[in-house]
Structures are given as C-alpha cells and as structure tokens.
Write a structure and sequence with these properties.
The structure is a homotetramer.
Chain A lengths: L4 E2 L4 E5 L6 E7 L9 H11 L16 E3 L3 E2 L2 E2 L4 E6 L9 H5 E2 L5 H8 L15 H19 L2 E9 L2 E2 L21 H14 L5 E8 L13 H10 L4 E6 L10 H4 L3 E2 L2 E2 L7 E2 L2 E2 L4 E7 L9 E5 L4 E4 L14 H18 L18
Antiparallel strand pairs in A: 1-2, 2-3, 3-7, 4-7, 5-6, 8-18, 9-10, 9-11, 11-17, 12-17, 13-14, 15-16, 18-19
Chain lengths: 364, 364, 364, 364
C-alpha cells in the first residue's frame, strides 16, 4: 500500500483528488537556509496551468499555492514544508454516468478493481491535476540545485504527434504555447492542434529534459542508479509510456564504436550516455526523453463497459487537453529536479563527506 | 548512500564484485510455504550464464548458487533467504592499466568521482556479473507468482542491431542462442554476430518482456505505479538506456481514438496500455520493452584519459559479449517478476484484505 | 534528513510548527472502505486538547481537523488522507528573548546546532503541539483496527510524580482530568498538582497503554519486531525518556521460572512478555509503559546560555502544562494504533495470504 | 513483511538461522576509504562469543567472519560489504519434541502463528545467534565513528539480577566475565551465577551504553529522533524488554527544576537528558540503558502446550546462558554504533552541507 511518496532524503508526499477540497504535499528533507516563497513555486505552476492558450483545456484552476510550514522569516528551516492548493473550479455536474461506467484507457477500471470504491469526479486521484503538487515541490528542488550547485534543468516539447522540433533554440521554448524550441515548427503545430480540436481527437507527444551543471558522482549504483530513479520518476507522470536516457532506443542499432563516448583531456566527444555511466552522473548533461500518450477523454464515442459488464458508448463532454504532452514540460522538469535533489542529499563521498567532484573533463 | 536494495516488501539486496570472493543476495519478504531449492534458481542462472554459445563471452562462470537460509525441509519459512555464488573464474591478470585509465563509456570515470577508490578488476561492482543475483532472486518471485497466482513471465530478444524479429513464436525462444522468437531471423543474426566478432565491434539490442495472468489491481498509484516501478527495475539493469510500456514511444504519433484500448463484455480490443491503467494492472498482459546499448569493451581502440587527465588509447583484450543484450532476457524477466511480487505483497484491497479481483474482461 | 514519516505501509507524515499557519498530515495506506469522518478524529483530539481542566495549560487551541482528501461519500477510498488543523491561538508576543537564548532542557540548543536557523515561536516544530496530528492519524488506525479486527486500545496514567495508581478500573479513566484509573488517588493528584502550579515547578508521569484483541502473528522479527517498532513510536513522543513492554525493567530481577509465561490449554498463565514473543504478537494483550519527563518551561529561573555563549537566566512566562504526561494518554494510544495498523498491513502469512490466526490460547 | 534491515543510509540486512548453513549480512552505505579487515570485526565478535567463561553457554561457535565484498586493497570502496559466518557447531540431535511443542516464553508459539512453518532447530531465526551479525556490522560503524568523528561507544553490565554495579570504572569492564565496571561486585556475581546454574534457573540483567564525543546536531526530529531510533534498535535485541535514555523512568518522580540540565558557558551541569534534546544530539554523551529478561530455556520443567493444544511439560536440556544479559554488552554497543552511523550519514546541515557543529558547551 501507500505509494504517494517519492524520494528517500528529499521526500515528496502528495494528496488530493481532482474535484476534492484541496491538493497538498509535504516536502520532507529540504535543507535549512534556502530563501523560499510562494512565488518560487507559482512561476512553475503557472507554466503548467491550464487555460493559458486555446490548445489546452479551458478549465480554470487558479492553482495558488500556500506554504503552511517549514519556512520562517523567508528561509527554509529544515522542517517539513507543507503546501496547499485549494480547489476552486469544482463545477457541480452530473456524475452518474461516469460513476457506473469504465471509460476506455482510463484508470476507472483498474481503480475499481483495486479499491472497490473510487472518487470518480474528474478522475479523482488519477487525474493529472495531481501533478500540480509535483511542480510545486520540484520548484523547491530546482531552486536549491541552481543556487547551491549551479544546476540548470530545462525541458521542451520535441515532438507533437508527427511534427518534430528539429532545432533546439532554448530562447524559443517559452515563446509559444507548446514549449517548442523550434520556432519554424510552431505554425504547423498550431494548425495541427486546431484541426485535432475540431475533430474531437487527441495526440501524443515527446518531451525532452536536460540538466546542465550536474557534478559527477551523483547516483547510487545497482538499483538506485540515477537513471533508474529518473526512469521511475518520469514514468510515474500521468500518460507517460516510455523513458529514454541519452541515446535511448537509438542505441539498439548503434555499434559500440559509435555509442561509446570517447574522452579527451578537453572533454567528452559525445553524450550518447546522457550523462550517466554505471548509474552515476559523469558531469555531462543529464538528458532524458519521454513519450506521452494521447488523452483518452474524447468527444468521439468509444466502446466501454459498465460496472455490471454491459457494453456502453462513452463520450466525454468535459474540457480536456487534446494533447496532454503540451503541459507536461514543467512536470518533467520538476521530476528531474526532485531526483537530482534526492541524490545530492544521499551522496556521501570519501570518508563520508559530501565533496562533489569538479569534473576533470569539460562538458559536451 | 546505499541503493543495493530493490522492493519494499519483497526486498532483494545484493553484494559482490566481478572478481571478488563471491556474489550474494538476501531476499527478505518471501512468504512462507513455497517449495524452493537451488534447482529453481539454477535453471534461470544457466540461461544467463556466459559461454553457452560462440556469440557470448567465453568466460567460464559456474554460477552455482547456494541457499544459506530461509528454507527448511524444502520450503520457505518466511525468514530471509541468503544466497551465495562463489566466484571461480578469477584469472589473475595484470590490472595496472585499467587501474589508472578511464575507459570510454565505462563506469570507471563516474565511480572514481563518486568514491575516490574502486575495485577495478573486471569492472568490480559495476560489472554485469552482479545481475546473476537478480536472476536468482527473480526465480523465487517467479515461482511464487506462477504457483500462487498463475502468472507467467517470459521475455525474448525482439531486435538485434538492425535485425528485427517479426514473428512472436514462444516455442522458438529457447531454440536458438539469441532468445529470438522468430526462427527465420536466426541465420541472419548468426552471420551478423560472426562478422561483428571478427570486426571487434559490438551492437545494441531490444528485449521484450510479457507477464500474463496478472490480476487487475496491482500497483500503487502516483509514484509507486506498477509501470513506474517497472521502469525503475528495468532501467537499473546494466546497459539499459530506454524503457517502454505498451505502445511506448509509438504513442507519440497515435491519436486518442487509436491508442485507447476499447472494452467490450468479451474483453479489451487492444493492449496499447501494456496492461497498466493509471499505474494499476488492468488484467491484460503487462508488456515492456527495453533498449540495451552495445558494450564498450572493444578490441578496437578508443580514446580515453588516465587518472591524471592525460589522453590514452584504450583497447580491451578480455573476453566480452559483443552484444550484452543477448544474455539480458532472463535478467529482464527476473526484474519484472520481482516488481510484480513486491506489488502483490503490497496490495491490500477493500477492508485491508488481499482479495485480488478476477477480471471482468477477458485478456487480449 | 527527512524523518517526519512513521510507518511502512500505513504511513503518517506530519508537518507544522506550533505557531505557524497550520498543522497537517498525510495518511498514506489506509485501506478503502472504512467509514470515516472528522468526528472520528475529533473525539480523540478533544481528549488531548489543552485547557480542559485547571491542571493543563490554559492555551486555547480549537484543534478542529478537516479531511481534505481520501474520503468520498463517507468512506475511505484507499488514496492518501490529507488532514489539516489551522492554528488559531497564535498570540503575537515578543519573541526576541527566546530567539537568542537556549533554554535548559529544550530543543533550542540542538535545533540550533543542526539547522542553524529555527522557528523559535512556541518551540516551532519541536513543540508537543505536533502530536495533535498523531492523535488524528491514530484515530483512523484505531477505528480500522476496532471495526475490522476487534482490537481495542486504551491507555491511562499509572503514576503522577510520586503518586501511583494502584487499581486499574477502566471506567474511571475518563472520570477525572488525569486519565487515572484509580479513583482513590485522584484527590491526592489534584492537591499535588495545585501545589506544583503554585510552586511554578513541573513533574514527570508514567502512562500505560494496552491493546486487547490483537491476533497472534503480527510483527516482523529481527529489526522490525512489533515491540521494537512500538518502542520507536513511543520514544518519538515528546518528553518520553523510557519505554517498557510487559514486565519491562522489572525483568532484571526476575528469575526465568518467574518470568516465563507458562501456557495451558486454557491459556497463558501470566503476561510478563507483554503480548510479544520474538517480536511477534502472541495473542495476549500488548502492554507498554512510558516515562514522561517534567516539562522544562518553568516560572522558576534556570541557568541557560545565549547564542553567543553568555550565561542567561531563563524564566518561562507562557502557559505551560505542569505535567505534560497528563495529556499524553491519547498520544500513546494513537502511536500504538499506528504501529499495530502498519504491522497488520505488512503481515502476510502462508502463501502470501493475510490469514490472521485465531489464537489457540485464551487471553490472560 | 521483510523487516531484516536496519538503517536508512547505513543499512544492515541480516540472514541466517541458528542451526542453518551460515549467518550473513550486507552492510550497504559504508563510505569509501575506511581501512577495514576481518580483525576489526573479530575483536567484537569474540567479546560476544559463548564459552569464554563458565557463566555463559558452553556451546562452541567459532564465529569467524569473512568479508566477501566491498573492501579492496584493505579499504572500503563504498559498495556493499558482504559478511559471512559459516555455522560449525551444528550438533545433530533429536528435534522431534521441540518441533511439536510450544515452549513457554519462546518465539515458537508466535512464529507458528505467523508463518505456519518454522525452522525449530535451536530457535532458528529467533535465536540470539542472529546478533553475531549485528556485532560484526556494528564494528564497521564503530570504526568509522571513532576514526572520522572521534566518537567512542562503550557498554557495561550495570545490574545482574539483584546485584547492582555501583562504581563505573571503565578499566574494570573487560577484567571480568560479566562486563561489570565495579570490581567489588564481581565475586558476588560469580557466586550468584554459580548458584543459579546449580538451580537450573536464569536471571535478568541491565546493560548501559554510552557514546562519547557525539557532535551536536545528529538525529531527525519527530519520528526519526535519535532516541527513538535508538529505542527501536535496542528493543530489537533479543530478550530486551525496556529501554531508557538519560534519566529514563527515574524522570517520573523528578521535578522540572531537577531534571532540566542547566547550561553555563563552561558546559551542561547535568545530563538527565542522556545527550538528546528534541530528538537531536546535544553534544553531551548519549546514555542508554536496557533491561534483558531471563532466558526461558531452563532445566526446570515448565508448562507448555503442543501444536494440537495439549498440555506438555517442557524441559530444556541444551547448553544455554543462565543470564543472556552477560553477553549482550557488545550487541548493545553495536546497535548504538549503527544508529549513530546512520544518523551521521543522514545528517545534512545548512545549505545541505554536512558540517557537524563543534559544541559551544563542554561535555559533562
């Protein structure tokens, strides 16, 4: 049981249902002395927030986070940080259908079999709304990593359905509603999304996340490898069906002479490893990529069954994201930040000290 | 620190270096009453064992496992199961080079930065030899799952470099040295591997694993989702760079109407989800796929540096697998078994009972 | 780091400072299907609440708990239960002294050395106010244990300073402000406390807790013994300096023939073990006893130092409990409930089932 | 389930039955760079070893420990340390009686109800023989703490049945078979034990453990308080029924003015707290005390039942310790060392660094 906590020393535990009273989280293990305010989290929350363009759900969620503990006179104290977001946009509506139907590709069916009961309103606990707290917690990790270690974590949408971003221009990422780093592809994405919305269908996406400035030596090999924990964290995001580190699935067709990242005194000559060797950071950028499935809440009818096993036709009329991947960039960044933070706190080097190596090699 | 344990209730902790005295593991949490002997593990260990064909390393490792505790009169007692494999093939050789060099794409560099010291003989703790204990522990989980719940876990090599298996014939998997389910592709694989060995290069591979008979309801949503734990487990296997569940990365280009697995009273109509909905098993087969990178231990020279930062030319002369993916099938099966076992033990349904649902729907 | 979570499968994580915005907690792992409302917790919270007699602090804390998640249509859903108590009685006062002084026997000094910063208002995180959330979480565990397993957990004050309760009459426990089961000792306690309050001093106490109806078989031997987890849980309560199970320290002078609880077909003949054999419940009542130190917040001046190491005279003028033990009974009950709940959920018997044995023997 | 692991970052997992093939343990999380050999552990193992005087069991156990991994060229590498003790003194004897009988005050009865099966030979997993691995693991922690932090951990027997040590002369502790620090009481203890052995009875004991040189700031407040973890660790030792920190149960009758440890610029004026304030070390010595029950394996017959519920007369003929407390001193020291080591590794101070404070105050 349980399962709502991530992280061993930087532990994030969340609660809350989509249409319940509130979402909340406890961050346990944040070191003392970090300047922290609601604004630090709000910035990232606003990036995840729905309704910021016509391409995402038009639900209104203020997503205003309150710090309830763990911060005193503007600084963290080392005690647990309690966070709360009250739910405001709980439209009262008729849930009788959703209560007795299993919608295809939703968690209704599996939750029903696990728990017997479920809060079906808006997907309850299985709603992606839960990720708001991950973003808030990630913002704390991110601030620490940036200020203390100079680590910068950034993500972008690298593919929307069939459309791939081919240029990585970080400056473009926040200039469009897709987090797309390739300005030339934005118009194509816009029309693709407009057509999709008209159709009533949805589409998958790919998000890449990169952490720069990570010192070598983070990660505990064997089971708690940095990349294994990262895979855990990223696969735990709603709708994610695949995770890659570095070359990822492309390595299947790579030869060893191509894949191995050669080293010279000036630095690594490539980064197929994605910044992780033997489960431990190498000092190169940590690079991960995830695949997000298309949402299954569609206006187009689909076959489902009801709780008695009878066939039903399911049509979703609510306000849903036609591409859940679009809003996932801040979530993926948050999860990478949480993983790195946890591994930084777990790391103990020679004689039990926390010396973090300066890399011998330049970063590629 | 730590990080050598996997599983919350079915916990597997391993120790041992490639060229050290022994490998060992403690399985903590195996329920009492399971008939268990060394043979149950040996079968799987032998499938992973090197030197069984010309396509894998010619190192000889007996990999004979001994049960030291936790089994009494042929049955598990519920107390921890201690397992030991003594290392026998420790060729004494000159390690002076490897001790001071960082080989490209090896864990030498990252271990050095983390620990300051390392057992460099044969890769020490970062050697894939460590996975022998995972296979042994997985065999215990697998036996329990099969006998108690009727779950069957099987894997196969679905791609070797550029060559894809196109037919899934389970009967073929153990008829060739590659775990390839498509007999028609075996000759091609053989000649590919022969050429590769001659060249001195290596290649990546893809392994698929499938668990059939998994009841709906296993998995703890949010962070300890069944698929997130599976991603963790599979990404923790040496050389793995990518993990997919169900449709995986293909879902990026899928529309919602295509991806969503519709349900009828007779069963699901597809399994793009890979048997997991909202982090919880749906009763469909759990399907995962992993990418393994080509080994970096090559006869062909590569650029590396030494501990002082000077450039060195690295040539590996030892006995290495030109495709580490070939022997990875039993390891992937083992990790899936451990994950399912752990989630079975963690599962508590309504009123805290362990009732595992009988699926309403037939399996696809 | 971290450390604000108790329990492996029934996990309680708390946050909140004495004079912060709120106290909160997340209960992760409560099985679905339990009828639950705020009233279930409020009853126990009210028993812990200060200001109910002249013998406890006269601070007013409403301690009104709100359920924010995990309960739907009056029943738990298996998802995390978020609880919140807003702080209402935050008197604004001058904290300049306490901010720079280390009061004797307070956590000021150790928190300062650990964290560098601290929320000094009212003791911040180290205040016993934190235990309110334990009581709320314990009430959930207690309700489950009672309804599902028929386990009853009750505590009482067995000694207040030099005055020992000699009769255990459960009906008396809630008839007096001390949770004293021996009515004949209540007048003595009242005058003792009145004198103490006049003096400005404080006194220690002993609390006993008993769980009846616990089935045999709960507890995981070696490190996670039922009694070891109980010792952990009870010693984690503010002011506790000692924990006993069964005969406790009296066993030092017992001979084996006296201590060993003989068994007959009709039942055990004694319960010196306190219901735990080899770390596992025996079916007899679980009996524990704790010692609580006198509070150190006294009107009588004591020697302390300030943050610069200079000597200071410390006088506490606030509203404090002259005997913190008086209000500790519900807290000790709560922690025992949480431990038993966690072990019930962790327990898996033969073949991995959760069969809980019916004791062969009657209970003593 | 599980439960055979102690420690979050310095994790000790043990396996092994009294009369099985071997005892073993994995220490996961020992920092790299510590000089370590079998001798470091053997010294403490020999102090626990039976048969060293006529006052302990005459069983012969060589208890020779082998390091199987984690140490390279005489130093720890940061990878898990595998330890093994092969069992040598496994007398083949007739176990038919013990197999079907529940002996009073043994774990037979509770193990039977938990697991359904059990290895009854010599107590199986519930035998105190398991503590050998704790002593071995503790020796590693102790060496690190001593070399890296200057922490010294020492224990002694402070009471044997009715006989109390009244003088604490550390030099005496290893001059007698009882670990008694008061030379004047040794003759009395010897004749008491001789009489007891003749009688066929057993007796309880009290052990004190003290850690000196512990820096302030170790311990994670609320649930993972240093004293709570210590209580957990000490109560998990076989036969322990009570744990005290500092004044312990004596604090019940102490007034606040007496109990509070006043501070002056020269140091604390007393140590009733036992070195822990608010769950965090204060820089004073950590002082704990435990009560060990008399062994229940007696030549004098006792009433038990058999597995069918029939009354039986139980007589133990084996070689048993008449006072298990005598050999418990090294075990208690080991557990305290493991707790302190774990908390040292978990500790992260301001900005996430591991600065351990130099105490402002002298130690008492």
């Amino acid at each position: 049981m349980s399962g709502n906590t991530f992280g061993k020393l930087f532990s994030v535990t969340t609660f809350g249902e989509s249409h319940g009273a509130a979402l909340g989280c406890i961050i346990d293990g944040c070191p003392p002395g970090l300047a922290l305010s609601e604004e630090d989290m709000q910035r990232d929350l606003d990036r995840r927030k729905p309704g910021t363009s016509r391409h995402t759900t038009q639900r209104r969620e203020a997503d205003e986070v309150r710090i309830l503990s763990g911060v005193f006179e503007g600084k963290t104290t080392g005690t647990p940080i309690g966070l709360l977001i009250e739910n405001t946009d709980q439209r009262s509506k008729d849930y009788s259908k959703i209560a007795s139907q299993f919608r295809p590709a939703h968690a209704d069916y599996s939750y029903h079999h696990k728990y017997g009961v479920r809060d079906y309103r808006g997907g309850g606990r299985s709603s992606a709304r839960e990720t708001a707290m991950r973003v808030a917690a990630g913002a704390v990790a991110r601030k620490f990593l940036e200020q203390r270690l100079g680590i910068r974590i950034r993500g972008y949408l690298s593919q929307l359905g069939p459309i791939k971003a081919e240029v990585l221009d970080w400056d473009q990422v926040h200039q469009n509603p897709f987090f797309c780093p390739d300005a030339s592809k934005v118009p194509e994405m816009e029309s693709y999304m407009d057509a999709l919305r008209k159709e009533g269908d949805s589409i998958g996406a790919r998000i890449n996340v990169v952490a720069e400035g990570v010192p070598p030596g983070l990660g505990e090999p064997i089971f708690d490898r940095l990349d294994a924990d990262l895979a855990h964290a990223l696969m735990s995001i709603n709708a994610v069906k695949g995770v890659e580190v570095g070359a990822g699935f492309a390595c299947i067709e790579q030869k060893g002479t191509e894949h191995r990242d050669e080293m010279t005194p000036e630095g690594f000559l490539s980064n197929h490893a994605g910044g992780v060797l033997g489960g431990i950071s190498s000092g190169q950028p940590i690079v991960a990529s995830i695949a997000l499935k298309p949402t299954s809440s569609l206006r187009l009818p689909g076959r489902g069954i009801d709780v008695d096993g009878n066939p039903v036709e399911v049509v979703t009329t609510g306000r849903h994201d036609p591409c859940v991947g679009i809003r996932a960039t801040p979530i993926a960044e948050a999860m990478m930040a949480i993983v790195l933070m946890d591994h930084y706190l777990r790391h103990r080097g020679q004689n039990g000290d926390v010396v973090v190596s300066t890399p011998v090699l330049g970063q590629l």
